[in-house]
Design a protein that fits this description.
alpha+beta; 6-stranded mixed sheet; Chloramphenicol Acetyltransferase; about 35% helix; about 20% strand; 2 domains
Length: about 450
């Protein structure tokens, strides 16, 4: 919709789609819902103390080009969608804060701090992001941990935001006033006009959903059920974090030799690492672990932000001992998932309906009781695009772009991979109540690439 569209609430006000609202409603203290990155920067020793101020100037010049200079508002009575409303200014002294620490940050302390900060929920009454600055690292340079609420954008949109905040994007014109929301009565009138105009669209989508549900019957037996085992159950509110960085050329070479994509190899390495870890701890279930992953269905008409992802639930063949057999089984499971996705997309792509926001809030209050899994999967694995070109912020070159993932309700682990130049940088985050040594999983992941290379 453009600014002149009569169905638009007001300039600078954007309604959340139901997919985006899901990211807010599914959030709990044990499962915050944000997308994040731990970015390591080349910062000279004599400039560590100025990093935070430099980042504040950088963000002040670029935030209006992103979807982050906003605050959330609920529609009166939940009749219409909740909305993001533009704001002119943000308290960057608070939003971009230096983490206090005596001396330089050793890796273990840095990762412990990131794991702790990962559990801090964002306040959506203000800009839906936060930046934590680590001024001095023992290996040289500095780091920043930036997180953004998942309701703003998915993993691909997050990378677009990071590009808009980087030196690759030019400064933009500042805003001079906050967006003004309509009065409740006017808001209701605008909502009624919107619902009336979209009546045919909702009817078409309802027909497509019924057809999709019928089509999915043919895929009913394709999925392995999510097994219950020692690491199942509600997710705790404590985390452990580690990172992995693998040369992209090595992963590509193994994939070429084994007739597999980068994503196939990523899943196979995770399968080997988890199988070996669970064998060491005596917790390997007889049934294969099931993944919660996602595929983007974003098209040009969808724009850059919001969530346009459909869930995938392949299994990891962790019950098979041979690495190549596991790879082939994973490929077959992923192929079956991909055959489902057009039908799953039809179930997700839904226009809003009257009182939709209110009804979703009530439904999620019941679904979240007891910390149960909202969707299938023992763990989450994501492989998302990242920049191939060099990147910098406030003049400081980026060394690494490690994801800082989240763990959805009822799961124990998330490994997310993101390209950073010539490397695949990965973030590994685990439920601290279930995984005693997340660094061991990271080490086994790296060793799994050595094993596949020797086979290839």
């Amino acid at each position: 919709m453009n600014a002149a569209d009569p169905l638009r609430l007001a300039p600078g006000v954007r309604r959340l789609r139901p997919d985006d609202h899901f990211m807010i409603l599914s959030e709990t203290d044990a499962s915050p819902m944000h997308v994040g990155a731990l970015i390591l920067l080349d910062v000279p020793e004599d400039r560590h103390a100025e990093l935070a101020a430099s980042l504040r100037r950088q963000f002040a010049d670029r935030l209006p080009a992103t979807p982050l200079l906003v605050r959330l508002h609920e529609a009166p009575d939940g009749y219409d969608s909740d909305v993001w409303a533009d704001i002119a200014n943000a308290d960057l002294e608070t939003l971009i804060a230096v983490e206090p620490h005596e001396g330089a940050w050793v890796e273990a302390d840095l990762y412990a701090a990131v794991a702790r900060l990962n559990m801090r929920r964002l306040n959506l009454s203000g800009p839906p992001f936060a930046v934590h600055v680590f001024e001095r690292l023992t290996e040289g340079g500095s780091a920043l941990y930036l997180k953004m609420h998942h309701s703003v954008a998915d993993g691909i949109g997050f990378q677009t935001v990071m590009r808009l905040l980087s030196d690759a994007a030019p400064p933009v014109t500042a805003r001079f006033a906050d967006a003004r929301l309509p009065e409740p009565e006017k808001w209701r009138e605008k909502a009624d006009a919107r619902f009336a105009a979209e009546a045919d669209l909702r009817a078409e989508q309802s027909t497509r959903r019924k057809e999709a549900l019928g089509a999915l019957e043919a895929h009913k037996g394709d999925r392995e059920p999510t097994p219950d085992f020692a690491l199942s159950g509600p997710t705790s509110a404590e985390r452990r974090y580690a990172t992995i960085s693998l040369p992209l050329a090595r992963v590509k070479a193994v994939g070429k030799a084994l007739d597999a994509t980068i994503n196939d190899i990523f899943l196979a390495l995770a399968s080997t690492a988890l199988r070996n870890y669970l064998l060491e701890t005596g917790d390997l279930p007889d049934a294969p672990l099931v993944v919660n992953s996602a595929r983007s269905y974003r098209r040009p008409e969808h724009g850059d932000f919001g969530n346009r992802i459909v869930a995938l639930h392949p299994h990891l063949a962790t019950h098979l001992a041979d690495p190549v057999e596991r790879l082939r089984a994973i490929q077959a499971s992923m192929a079956a998932e991909m055959r489902r996705t057009p039908h799953d997309e039809a179930l997700l792509d839904a226009a809003e309906k009257p009182y939709g926001a209110r009804d979703r809030r009530a439904a999620f209050a019941d679904r979240l009781a007891g910390g149960k899994r909202l969707i299938p999967g023992n763990l989450t694995l994501s492989n998302v695009p990242g920049p191939a070109e060099p990147r910098s912020y406030a003049g400081f070159a980026q060394r690494h772009n490690y994801p800082v993932p989240i763990i959805g309700s009822g799961r124990f682990l998330n490994i997310t991979s993101r390209r950073s130049g010539d490397y695949l940088d990965m973030g590994v985050i685990a439920d601290a109540a279930k995984v005693a040594d997340v660094a061991r999983i990271a080490a086994l992941f790296t060793a799994a690439l050595d094993e596949l290379e020797s086979i290839a």
